[in-house]
Amino acid sequence: MTGGAGFIGSAVVDELVEHGHEVLVVDNLHPLAHRDRPEYLNPDAMYRWVDLRDADALEPSVRGVDVVCHQAAMVGLGVDFDDVADYVTDNDLGTANLLRALHRRSFGGRIVLASSMVVYGEGRYRCPTHGIVRPGRRRAADLDAGNFEPPCPTCGASLIDEVVPEDAPLEPRNVYAATKLHQEHLCQTYAADHGGTLIALRYHNVYGPRMPRDTPYAGVASIFRSAAERGEAPRVFEDGGQRRDFVHVSDVARANVAAINAPPEADGACNVASGEPHTILDMASALVAAVAEMGLPTACPAPVVVGGHRPGDVRHIVASPERAAAVLGFRSQVSFAEGMRSFASAPLRG
User: Fold this and answer.
1) How far apart are CA 95 and CA 218, in angstroms?
2) For FRET with 288, which of 66, 98, 123, 170 sits at 20 to 30 Å CA-CA?
């Protein structure tokens, strides 16, 4: 298990240990994600503090493994394009080093990769006249003018967004997205060449305990939660109408175990999503309401819609969960309402 000390990785470790697996974690405790060694590390797993960028140090850790669960990655949109070399080094070079180490050990088993919804770019859209279409990147002038919905690229009409299946075209729209797609391609190539299988789990918006707080690489749920706790109104970009699928980290951990235990013929990409889309403003409002119920000394203001936009962000991306159900037997169990209530008081990572 790479990245097994992180937010999602540690939840997967706990779930694997609970199901009787023997788990070896490789993690570099990246300073953008960890200030110190986490206190929540599972005592029944083994840990090696190895950086995937260090090929020589990595090789001994893959000896004798029969499944690889690759969670390690630099995540989020980052600050700006100046982050590009860091993302490529951490995500793509790190993955290449891992695969080379596996090659040198003649590993031919299953790889479960933490991929992401970001590989799709914009979601799936239908034009009333032209059917399924792929809108181009939203123009800065339109966004600045408050025109957030992408139009039909052929006739300019308003579009209807739909759920995205795994065979949708892939079009990463930011550096992080490009590195995640490259991870998929590298792992696909390795599996095909070595007689193994790859299950790429395309996570949607994951939230829950142990999320990192207050960094440019933190998820939006963590940023909103931290603001509400400080008595500040969460700041919502655009008009707040961006639709996403928020999936609890405990469900993501279950999906990983399902992928590891899936039949030998299971292969390919699977969306990991709740199937219950909500807007960004819905999520911010639900968190504020749940934090307010905790009775903190500082009042918790309602979210503020501030307009603007984040470079490389997309308007709507909502997944179909049907292939994960068919291939892995996985469906999420934590509802949006239940998850947001529990997340309001869940411990975050400093």
Assistant:
1) 22
2) 123
Tokens of 97: 């080093």
Please give the C-alpha separations between residue 159 and each of 144, 166, 170, 285, in angstroms, as whole numbers.
Answer: 20, 20, 19, 26
Q: Phi and psi for 283 in degrees, rounded to 5?
A: -65, -45
The reported pTM is 0.95
Structure tokens at 181: 């797609």
What are the pLDDT digits (tens) for 316-333? Answer: 999 999 999 999 999 999
Query: What is the Cα–Cα distance from 321 to 120, expressed in whole angstroms?
Result: 15
Is residue 218 over pLDDT 90? no
Q: Which bin fits 308, alpha (ψ -120 to 50), beta or left (φ > 0)?
A: left
- Amino acid at residue number 144: D
Please write down the HEC assignment for all residues of 172-220.
CCCHHHHHHHHHHHHHHHHHHHHCCEEEEEEECEEECCCCECCCCCCCH
| Closest to 349 in 3D by CA, of 206, 203, 218 | 218
Phi, psi of 66 (to 5 degrees): -115, -10
Non-local (6+) Cβ contacts of 314 within 8 A are 121, 122, 123, 173, 242
| One-character DSSP codes across 37-89 | --TT--TTSEEEE--TT-HHHHGGGGTT-SEEEE-----S--SSGGGHHHHII
* Predicted pLDDT of residue 93: 97
